[in-house]
Write a structure and sequence with these properties.
2 domains, 9-stranded mixed sheet, binds flavin-adenine dinucleotide
Amino acid sequence: MKKVTISLETVVLGAGVAGLVAGFYEKNSTIIGMKPLGQLDLPFTPGPRLIQYNLHTARFVKDVMMGSENSSYTAVTKKAKIGYEENGIVSDIYSDEFKEKYSELTRGKNRTKTSSYMSEGRESVRHIVFVDQNGEEVEESYKFLFKEVLRQLRINNALIEQKVIAIDVTNNTVETEHYIYKYKKLISTLHIDIFRKLLIHNSHLNHVLDMMYMTNKFDLKNKNFWKCTHNKQDLYLKKSYDYIYSVDGIHSRRTFFKDYVVLEVLDKNIAESLIGREIQLQINDVPLQMKYSFEDIHTLLAAPSNIEFIGRYAEWNHKIKLNEVLNKVYARK
Ligand SMILES: Cc1cc2nc3c(=O)[nH]c(=O)nc-3n(C[C@H](O)[C@H](O)[C@H](O)COP(=O)(O)OP(=O)(O)OC[C@H]3O[C@@H](n4cnc5c(N)ncnc54)[C@H](O)[C@@H]3O)c2cc1C
């Protein structure tokens, strides 16, 4: 049976952080995405997920909370304190060798510039959290915020939860299992290789993306996250630190939560006894880390002017967090 074609103004592909932000701010837009919240919806928070404070994130939080039905939460800022562990000693500062070792352990190469990893080498990060009427902090403020964005988008019928099966940039259509959507403007937040594979017709964009794929591949390195009970040292250290980077070889980072600690484990086959904690849950082989980043994918792709790419995997740039997505979205306003 021939699929019905529905005309839309702006179509946003993907409903993770980037898609939800784009859909929240873009006028007359509709998000088409499966598995809303994307990477935010892992079985537990895999590490520090911080709404890093600046004027843009403060504005975003305000805009979202204005539409919230729940007025019992207030946004406040606090500092997340970062530690660095080498030879069993945790400190606020780290050496140049630390950076090299960390880069080798986690990226398998020697890189001394701290740019998009190890929290850019900072001692602390100011971020926004939500507290309830009793002053109790919401443990996953980042996810809390995005669940609220999702709720509002659903109420406004701005989200179509369907899988995209084809994108035709020549005829300006996006096809799902049920319908064909005709767009005037397209914003893709999909992983760039998913986007590449969904493209039909032999457009200029297909050629450029295929060339990029042949030279670079769009592979992601897997990461392993283990949720564990605190050991004695954790209980002591969590009084001073929110998360700690380590070059001691077992895990590269531990993040303290109220009742548990999450380790970013370097080798998922490591003997569990070496962890020194009771393991509650493991998520292994999560494809997260890109080996290289593009500075500006738009220039490289020379895509049609009605197509935009937003987000870490759509722009293939590991630096992209919520802040960078907001910078881009607000720059257009
Ligand atoms: C461990 C970790 C810690 C982080 N910490 C921070 C932090 O502290 N601060 C910060 O600001 N950022 C942080 N980030 C970054 C931020 O969360 C990411 O930028 C974000 O998770 C990626 O969002 P995204 O929307 O670009 O992609 P995704 O979350 O991958 O979303 C893409 C969406 O597209 C959907 N999709 C895929 N294929 C299709 C299809 N064919 N049809 C329809 N839909 C499809 C997927 O289901 C998904 O919902 C962190 C990320 C990770 C992984």
